[in-house]
Fold each of these.
Amino acid sequence: MRKTLKQFASNMNGFPHFMLKEIYQQPEAVGTMISGCLRRPDTIALPDFALSPDDIRRFSKITIAASGSSRHAGIVGEFMLERMAQIPVEVDFASQYCYRDPIVGPNELTIFISQSGTTIDTLAALNEARQKGSKSLAICNVADSPLTRNADATLLTYAGEEVAIAATKSFTTQLIAMFLFSAYIAQIRGTAHSAVKSALRELRCLPQQMKQALATDETCRKFAGEFYRYRDCIYMGRDIDYPIALEGALKLKEISYIHAEGYPTGELKHGPTALINEHLPIVVLATCDRSDEGSLLRYGKSLSNIREFVERGIPVLAVITEGDTEVSAIAPYVVSVPDVPVLLQPLIEVIPLQFLAYHIAVLGGHNVDQPRNLSKSVVVE
C-alpha cells in the first residue's frame, strides 16, 4: 500500500519538508554509488553487470530514452558518453520514442533512465527497443521494478526512498550513474583521456564537495525573497551545463508554478532574447574548470553575456566557481560552488538551483512535497 506523507512524518529528522531533507541527503547517496564502483583512484568496476566487455566493445551507437528530470540526466550522459567513450549518442523523450518508429541498427545499446522503474512511456520505449534488437540498460532507483526486470542490464542508483515528488537525490544519483558507466566504457574501449582521468582522481572528493555546496542554502533562501515575485524566469547554460539549466527550470515550474525555460546560452540570441527585459530574471550557469581549455573558452563567452544582461538592467543570478572575481564583480546576485573537474560540474551546480526552487515555492505558500497535478511515477499516457 502506498504511504501518505502523514505516515512518513516520523522520518522528517527535523526538516520542514521532505524535499529539503532529500536535497541534504545527496552527498551520502552519491557517495554510496561511488564507493560501490570505484576500486582504485582511476578504476571503475560495475559488480554483477550483465553486459560483457565484448558487448561494450561492439557498441556503435547509444540511445537514451527518458522523461522529465531523468531525461535531463540523460542529456548530461550524452555529453559524458561522447566525450569519455567516444560513441555517438542520441537522447529521446521516452514518450516520443515509439511514435517515431526508431531505426535500431546492429550493436546498439539503448539506456532507459527512471527513478521508479514504472513510468509507462519508458516501459513502452524499452519494449520497442528490444523488439528491434537493441541491447538495453536500465538506470533505476528500484531494484525489483518492471524496468529492471525487463532490461538486459541494470545499474541501480541506491538513492534510497524519495518521498517528495520533485526529483533531487534520485536525479544526482542518475548523474553519477551516467558518469560511472561512461568511465567504465572508456576503460574497456581504451578511450580514457586526461580529462576522464582527472575526474576519476577527484571522484572520492565529490561527496564532500557536494556537502560544501549545501552551504548555498542560506544564500539561495535570501535570493528567493527577491525572485519569488516574478512570474517568468530563464535558465541558461553552455555545453554540459545546458541540461542543468533545463533541470533548474523544471524544478521551479514543478513546485512554485512559475513559468521557467532552460536554454543553451548561445541560443538566446536566436529568438528568446526578444522576451528579455527588467521583469524577466535570468539564472546563468557560469562555473569554470580552469584546468580545461574548453571550459575556459565557454566561461569567457558567458562572462560577456552576463555583462550585456546587467548593462540592460536585467536581474541576473550567476552560479559561479569559488574564487571567481570576474563574474562576482558584475552580477547582482552570485552563488558560489566548489571547483570540480568539468565532467563533474553538473552534480555541484544543480544543488543551488534545487535550493532556489524550494525556497521560492515555500515563500509562495505552495505544497513543496506534493505539487498539484503531479505524481512520482507517470503510469497513464
Amino acid sequence: MKKRFTHIALLTTFLTTSLFAADAPVDMNKRAEELKNLKWGMFICWSFSTFSGKEWTPGITDVSYFKATGCDTDQWARTAKEAGMGYILFLTKHHDGFCLWDTQTTDRKVTKAPLGRDVLAELKKSCDKYGIKLALYFSEGEWRQPGGLDDPATPGPKKSNQGGSNAELKKAQLKELLTQYGPIEYIWFDHAVGVGGLSHAETTKWCKQFQPGCFIGYNHGDQEGCDIRLGEMGKPGPLQDHKAAGPHMRDEPSKNYLLAEFTYPILPGHKGGAMWFYSLPIHDGLCRSAESLYKDYLGAVKYGNVFALDAGPNYEGKLRDIDVKTLQKVGDMIRNSPVAAPVPLSQGKTATASSSWSAEYSPGKAVDGDESTRWGAANGSRDGWLAIDLGQECAICRMVINEIACPRTQKFVVEWQDGGTWKELAHGTTIGEEKIIDFTPVKARHVRLNILKASEVPTIEEFQVFAPGAKAAVAEEGH
C-alpha cells in the first residue's frame, strides 16, 4: 500500500509539473488572468539579514550565521490562507548567495546551516496543504562571485553594492528551482547587484525552457522581454502607469507586460533595523494597519494587479504575532466588507490652499482620488493649509491624509468651520504615508488641514474626508 501511494504521489508531481512543460503550448493571456485571480500574496524574506538587523548583510563567510532555531512553513501558509491570499513569494537567495533550498551548486545553503532543513521544500508542502500557489524571489548577482564585493580573489577597492558574475552558477540554480519545486507562478528577479553574468534576455529564455508559463520580471534593469512588471515599494495602478512600479523602476517599460505586481513591507518606516527582513525585537509592536492593507488590496483588484506584502519571519522561523493578527483582520475584511472602498465625501470637491508650487501641484490634486498627483505649497514654504468645501453641510467622522513617501510634516492640526470660526478636530506631529484620524461626528461643510511646521515644502497626495456610514463600511484599525 505504501508503494502504491508513493507511485501516486510521483504521478501527481509529474502531472502538476507537466502543466508548464516546455512542449505544452501556453496561452500567456490566460495565464495573466490566472495570476490576477491570486490578487495578493505573502512575500517571505528570511536569510542572513534576519539576524543582522540590516537590509544587506555582506561579509558573512560561515553559514552558521543563519542561526534560526525553527521553521514553521505551515504557519506562513495558513496565515496566507486566512488573509485571503492566493500565493507566497519566497526569497530563495539574497545578494549574499545563501540559498534557502538544498542546492547542489554550493555548500552556502540552509541545509549546511544549524537549521539543516530544505526550507523551500517544506514551504512547497505547506502551500499544497493550504491551497496556496508559489512564486520565487532570486537575486541575480552575488557578492561572493568573481568580481563581487566579497570575492576574496579580487583585490582592490570595490563598490559597496558590487555583485560578481557566474553565469553557469545562475543557470544551474534556476534550473533546480524550476524543475524540482513544481509550478512557479512568477520569478521576482532582484537586479540590485547586477545580472550575475547572464543578461536579462538570456535569463528569461533560460527560465522559459523549463516553465514557459512562469512569468518573469526584474525590479529594474533591462525590461524588454519581461511579462510581469515588478513594483518594489510600488502601489496599485493601471498597467500603463509605469510610475506605479515605484522609485526603483528607472527603466523604460517592456512592450510585453501582461501583468503588474507591487510589493512593500508590512513594517512601516522606522529608525534602525531592517524593513524587508525581521527587524529587531524593539519593533515587534510596529505594523501597518489592516485598513491600509485592505485599501491596497482593493486597489490591486481594481487594476488587475497582484500585491505581494512582505512579512519577515523571526529568529524562530515564525511570523510575528502582530503580523498574523493584522493579516487575519484583512482576511475578515475581504470576506465581509464591501467589494469597493467607500468614496470620500471630499473626492472631486473644491479645494483651496494657502499657496501652490504651480498649476501641476494645485489644491485639487489632493482631492482627485489619484495618489500619483499631489498638492504642493509654494517654493520655500515651511507651513501652509489645505481646505475643502464639501458643497453642503454633512456629518463627518474620519479624515485620511496621505503625505509623500518622505514625510515632511512636523506639526499639524485638522479643523472644521463652525459659524465662520475654525475649530480643532485633532492635532499631531508627523503624518507619513497614511494618517487616519477618527473623531466624534460633527456636521461641517468646510474642513482644513493646517500644517504649522514642516521640514520641507508641505506636500500632500490625498486629503480625504469620510461620513460615519463609510467608516462603518470597513473594519476599523486604529493608528
